Amino acid sequence: MKTGESRRYVRVAYQGGPGSHSERAGLTLLKERFTGWPFASFADAAAALANAQADLLLLPIHNSTTGDIEDALQACADFENLGEITLPVEHYLLAVPGVRRAELRVAWAHPQVAAQCESWIEQSGLEVRIVDDGARAAPDFLASRLRHVGVLGPIRIGNATGLYPVEGPVQDRADNRTTFRLLTRAGGKTKTRIAPEREKALT
User: Fold this and answer.
1) What is 3-89+176-202's CATH superfamily?
2) pLDDT digits over 131-161, tens only?
3) How far apart are the C-alpha atoms of 196 and 83, rounded to whole Å?
């Protein structure tokens, strides 16, 4: 790979929002080259790559607690696999500043997050509302100043938006891990590769 190519920014489509685990995976893989483009669904992110609007696609394909993520794998089907990375995944109950745990009645969560926290949810006393992604919902949630609603997701959502953790980590398994796949269009010009030492260190 030419030096100029290795330094240019890469626009990566992913499902989620600022502070999500997918964003963390992209930053880990591509470092300062990563320019994230968040979407509401795996299919929408895949369409951005298929239409050549994005350079790469990054999707979570397997979780150690819930197994294969079938809709993400389906979205990967038409693309070339550049490599995979596995990261530890923790989830927290986040709320607007000043809210106490006892005030919360509802938790927003992506389906995968809810599945990874199933046992905790059953014992929490909270009603779970399924949303596209906690990270995507967080800015609107923060602006609403709702005091009875929390968001389940990575603690980095709070770092990105101003929400703060009131409980966690709350995933059912301490060894919860997710594998992410980096993809490009088949026969495309973008041939970014994952540094083997980085992948090995994190799997």
Assistant:
1) Periplasmic binding protein-like II (3.40.190.10)
2) 876 556 666 666 677 789 898 999 998 888 8
3) 9
